[in-house]
User: What shape does this take?
Amino acid sequence: MFTLTQTIDAPPTEVARAFTEPEPFAAWFLAEGFTTPADRVTIDARRGGQISAVFVGEGDTEVPFTLRFGAVDLPRSVVLLFDEPAEEITVQLSELAGGRTQLDYRSVGLSAEGEKTIKPGVAIMLGHMASYFSR
Assistant: This one.
């Protein structure tokens, strides 16, 4: 298990869009060396729904991926499920003074090695999210 916290200069109702709309999702859900084109993202933000998207890299490299929604209580919280590697992600959005949001990200289910690999990338992704909402 690992946890990360990110402060975002937008209220929870805005930050929740990062999990329900293709453009804000594509702006933060990136892997090093890849983009996530918004026109390659579909989101069905309800329990059992999915986020389907494609990482696009140099040349013709494409990596499709899918996350499933567990519990959805936006703008307060959302649970996302990866199948491979098996991971359950819980995101809590708490309102802060000044119209800001504290995002608490909790990952459960990865091996210790998986956590070492994935945690730094997630920290970068959350930074992308903060940048998107501060523009």
User: Anything to note?
Assistant: The radius of gyration is 14 Å. The helical segments are 12-15, 22-28, 112-134.
